Amino acid sequence: MSEGTQLSGLTGTATKVSPSFLGGAMIIAGTAVGAGMFSVPTVSAGMWSIWAIAALVFTWFCMLHSGLMILETNLNYPVGSSFDTMVKDTLGKRWNTINNIAVAFVGYILCYAYISGGGSIVVHTLEATVGFAPPQILAGLMFAVGLAFFVWWSTKAVDRITTILLGGMIVTFFMSVTGYTFNMKAAIFFDTESGMSTGSYFPFLFAALPFCLASFGYHHNVPSLMKYYGKDPKKIVMCLGTGTVLALLLYIIWLFATLGNISRADFAPVIEQGGNIGVLVDALGRAVESTSASNMLSAFGNMAVASSFLGVALGLFDFLADLLNFDDSKEGRLKTAAVTFVPPLIGGIFFPNGFIIAIGYAGLAATIWTAIVPSLMVRVSRKKFGNPQFRVWGGETLVWIIFGFGVVVGTSHILGMFNLLPVYP
User: Most buried among 11, 158, 410, 420, using CB within 10 Å?
Assistant: First the structure.
């Protein structure tokens, strides 16, 4: 029996079978987890462990439900419709222009960030294993071009490779984290030697919020999932719920491993060196002298950045195809691929060390289309269509919670840009 088709009894008719929700959940988890694993510990150095976990849990809650609001709205439009279609019809041309710029900016800057991070971790891995590595620019270029092929080929290809990558991530993650977790020290994790109270870390939380939001930024994949599964809200909700919960659990475990081994003071040089992935891996290697754990962590880093790149690139690819009206033929997908990948590749060549800075700006712009626009859009959609196929629970209260979260995150990043928020170090 071929995948996607089964024969229906004696009639011989063929009925299409929707793919398993597991593939979609892996796309969501892979997009969210990825390189966020390496930015979250670094930006958590200010607020430290307790507030970092609290910020992640609340961000997860808001980002899951804003994604469900996008799904609720998206179900009222033809399969293949993305933000350009939905926002224009619900909020008008002005909001659509703002949202399109924000979506494209985030997609491009995250692709650039993952090319930067991918080049960094590839160089670190090769130097640690074979003693030689190409320049980071060349490593990032090879990393991006190789993965771009799967996005150009099909969503199913991304599904398959992301599932493989996430499986490898889980194995290498637990093999590496087991060593780090067994060596974690409560005094480091709770920063008891500094003499600071838990409340004194709270002001640092706001500067980290944009990075937390960016670490759950899967929303551009919601239209891609509807394109993949059709109008099957139950299955897509399972994808979003399973994928984001898995991402949250991995983030929390990872915080135990990193913040339990690298002291708050030792994060200062990591931040000063730009916070790129290879720098954090080096810091962990110095904190816990375990060659096997370090090798497993490097393998995890390679797969994490690759899965994030694939998820973000797929969402940007489908968004641009909808925006530019490129068809789904191989030639049309080739044009979309060129528009999708050439700009971040140019950025990766000329600015190879912008990982943490790029993630922060992505979090700022992402507040528009992952929190503010979904909350406004779903209100109009409910009035216009009634949304009979699916409705997110919580009514107006939840809508305004998501909207308020977006405003707080965006404001925090702007204040941080003007040095009006406490930052560490």
Answer: 158
The residue segments making up the domain with residue 410 are 21-417
**Three-state SS for 13?**
strand
Residue 3 lies in a domain: no
- At position 2, the amino acid (one-letter code) is S
Radius of gyration of the chain (CA): 21
Give dist(CA 163, CA 158) in Å, integer.
8
Residues in the chain: 425
Please, are residues 82 and 318 in contact by the beta-carbon 8 Å criterion? Answer: yes
Q: What is the pLDDT of residues 36-81, one digit of tens each?
A: 777 899 999 999 999 999 999 999 999 999 999 999 999 999 998 8
User: In this prediction, what percent of the chain has a pLDDT beyond 90?
Assistant: 42
pLDDT in tens, 342-362: 999 888 877 777 777 888 888
SS3 label, residue 7 = strand
d(CA 298, CA 277): 9
Enter the DSSP assignment of 203. G
- Which has the closest alpha carbon to 371: 169, 193, 212? 212
Q: How many CB atoms lie within 10 A of CB 418?
A: 7
Coil/strand/helix, residue 6: strand
Can you read off the two tokens belonging to residue 218? 């899967």
Q: Coil, strand or helix: which one is 16?
A: strand
Contact predicate 409/210, CB 8 Å: yes
Using DSSP's 3-state secondary structure scheme, residue 14 falls into strand
Match 């976990």 to its residue by tokens: 53
- The answer to whether the peptide bond before residue 425 is cis (omega within 30 degrees of 0) is yes
Q: How many domains does one find in the chain?
A: 1
What CATH number did the domain enclosing 44 receive?
A: 1.20.1740.10
The DSSP 8-state label assigned to residue 200 in this structure reads G
Per-position DSSP letters for 151-167, written without gaps between them:
HHH-HHHHHHHHHHHHH
Residue 195's CB: how many other CB atoms inside 10 A?
Answer: 7
C-alpha 100/C-alpha 329 separation (Å) is 24
- Does residue 217 fall inside a structural domain? yes
Element (H, E) at 100: helix 93-129
**C-beta separation of 73 from 369 below 8 A:** no
Q: Measured between alpha carbons, how far is 169 from 244 in angstroms, rounded to an integer?
A: 15
Residue 9 lies in a domain: no
Task: Copy the structure tokens of residue 331.
Answer: 């030639």
The three-state secondary structure class of 8 is strand
Beta-ladder partners of 13: 8
Q: Give domain status of residue 277, yes or no.
A: yes
